[in-house]
Design brief:
6-stranded mixed β-sheet, Rossmann fold, 11-stranded mixed β-sheet, D-Maltodextrin-Binding Protein, domain 2, 23 helices, 3 domains, alpha/beta, signal
Length: 592
């Protein structure tokens, strides 16, 4: 019986999450009998079922109750858990997390499934390298990265569940210690650091698992040789009709092949837990019933069969119940028990948190960010733009919105509150542009960010949250002229600025650093000698995927730096008219 339980552990998640994107018996969480949030990686298992056989839908029908189901990414899951643990209003009743470490503090926690972490390499790269099997040694992985054969992206270990587990498996390999017995002191050892750096200095980090998967997906669509072709992820993220490979197959593009690490493959346990339901007897009883339903050994076989069907697998490409212990795609390398692999589990939550602090200080790749700040005439004159300051809306000049944004993202308290923590070696440089690009205006290092924001505010401000009308254009123009060697605001030549900063990067290029060029602007490039296409071709010709371009738009959608344009540089564009846009932008820039 125990063997059967293990047999369907990995399968259960397929059915469990297929319901997440389909099953919403009500569109109002407050009107539901139970509010359930499901992790985003588990969502990748979802099939195209019509709802008749989905587990939560089945449970809802059997019990005659209404469920509200929402899918959340890593960051959102932690925010939901925080609400549940602290008893905040609007919190879900039930959380189904991708990694049991994220169930810390929840009630009634039960493990219901598992998935493993490795690297997914695009199949055309696998074929060109003649890689065999679905197991890779760490030494070979590092060698492939250093040779440039694979270009790897991963979520920051503090932001994504899969990358967090990958950090533990990497430290287990580097230290020769079982991951479950890791401590912060072991991770910090001088003897371990060179090994860890050999891995992490070659990996581009993003703010979350979705962003990492999006980078390899977009690179596969574009066919760009400078794009990322390898991602650290759960094996589950390849599977199902909403998984990475199904999306690529629909576009006629090469799929990804999964490799487990021979010496240490981390396994995460999917877990279910509840908030403190206290005296809410009806919800408490229903939550207990749901947990029992999902882990009931007597019904596992039927649920596992549903999982295979719902995931869209056919008899020829997936193991059937009773014939193997996993629904998998052998041609994609995915297996529940890969041969010749040492599976490791994470340390306990408290130890994991301390180890991740060491990751932030020692292994997170250095980021050098160069920001182009638009101070052209259109930024200093009508039409104004609307911004949200808390619950208040203000109509301000675009340069004021930009000034406020810089003050926010250089405020240590704001950064800490939003869990945006620069690494100790991170550098942030600011340049102004109009018809010309200024020399370096100011820079910040590590967490000492505030002086840079205050200096920029002294030039283009002041900004007063309560009285934004206290601002004078002529005073700002005079300060720019006097402080920046006769700098004048006459036009918008953003790609002159971008090109200048790209040339700086070329001159001092380091493959072990992530470079980000950020363009903060209200609109359209006015330079007819350096066009958007010229800037892109210059970047492409340099041929290094660790240089990203990100846009932050003020007052427009960023005509010349819209999302389609910045996506070519492995970047994206955000709106600077609200705090959430700024949070998302600087999490993307600093990688948490």
């Amino acid at each position: 019986m125990k063997k059967m339980y293990r047999m369907f552990f990995a399968l259960l998640i397929l059915a469990l999450v297929a319901m997440a994107c389909r099953t919403q018996a009500t569109s109002d969480p407050t009107a539901a009998n139970l509010f359930v949030v499901v992790g985003n990686s588990a969502y990748q298992f979802a099939g195209n079922g019509d709802g008749d056989n989905l587990l939560l839908d089945q449970f809802s029908k059997e019990k005659g109750v209404q469920l509200f189901v929402q899918v959340a990414n890593d960051r959102e899951m932690r925010e939901w858990r925080e609400k549940m643990v602290t008893g905040q209003s609007g919190a879900p009743d039930v959380l189904i997390v991708d990694d049991s470490l994220d169930a810390d503090g929840l009630q009634k926690v039960k493990l219901i499934a598992s998935h493993k972490v490795g690297v997914a390499i695009r199949s055309d790269i696998v074929n060109s390298l003649a890689l065999q099997g679905n197991v890779l040694s760490y030494a070979d992985f590092v060698s492939l990265m250093k040779s440039g054969a694979i270009s790897v992206v991963a979520s920051n270990a503090m932001a994504g569940s899969a990358s967090r587990e990958f950090f533990f498996s990497t430290m287990a390999w580097c230290s020769g210690t079982d991951a479950a017995n890791l401590t912060a002191d072991i991770v910090r050892l001088d003897s371990v650091k060179p090994c860890g750096k050999a891995v992490y200095d070659q990996i581009k980090s993003t703010n979350g698992s979705n962003e990492a998967l999006d980078l390899v997906y977009n690179a596969a669509l574009s066919g760009e040789v400078t794009g990322y072709n390898t991602v650290v992820t759960f094996d589950s993220d390849l599977l199902g009709d909403n998984g990475l490979n199904a999306k690529l197959m629909k576009q006629g593009k090469p799929v990804f092949y999964f490799f487990y690490f021979r010496e240490a493959t981390a396994q995460a346990n999917v877990a279910i837990g509840t908030r403190d339901l206290g005296g809410e007897m009806a919800k408490n009883d229903l939550a207990n019933a749901l947990i029992s339903y999902l882990i009931d050994e007597n019904s596992l076989e039927g649920k596992a069969q549903n999982a295979i069907n719902l995931a869209g697998f056919t008899e020829g490409s997936a193991a059937l119940v009773g014939h193997n212990d996993s629904a998998f795609k052998a041609e994609w390398g995915v297996a529940s028990n890969p041969f010749g692999v040492q599976v490791v589990n994470a340390p306990i939550s408290a130890v994991a948190d301390r180890a991740l602090e060491v990751y932030r200080d020692m292994y997170k790749r250095t980021k050098i960010t160069k920001a182009c700040i638009d101070v052209s005439p259109s930024m200093l004159q009508n039409p104004k733009m609307d911004i949200m300051v808390g619950s208040n809306q203000f109509s301000v000049y675009k340069i004021q919105a930009l000034d406020r944004a810089v003050l926010k993202i250089t405020d240590p308290a704001w950064l800490q509150a939003n869990r945006i923590v620069p690494g100790p070696s991170d550098v942030f440089e600011y340049y102004f542009f109009s018809t010309m690009t200024s020399d370096l205006v100011v820079s910040s290092y590590g967490t000492d960010t505030q002086p840079a924001g205050q200096y920029i505010n002294s030039l283009i401000g002041p900004w007063d949250e309560n009285h934004p009308e206290d601002w004078n254009r002529s005073v700002v123009e005079t300060k720019l002229y006097e402080n920046l060697n006769g700098f004048q605001s006459n036009g918008t030549e953003m790609f002159d600025c971008g090109t200048k900063l790209l040339e700086q990067i070329k001159a001092n290029y380091n493959s072990e650093v992530d470079y980000i060029i950020v363009i903060l602007t209200d609109g359209e490039n006015m330079n007819h000698s350096i066009l958007a296409g010229d800037f892109y071709q210059n970047w492409k010709a340099f041929g290094h995927s660790n240089i990203t371009v990100i846009g932050i738009a003020f007052g427009t959608d960023g005509v010349s730096i819209n999302k389609d344009y910045t996506a070519q540089f492995n970047g994206t564009t955000f709106n600077g008219d609200n705090d959430q846009g700024l949070i998302d932008a600087f999490k993307a820039i600093l990688g948490n």
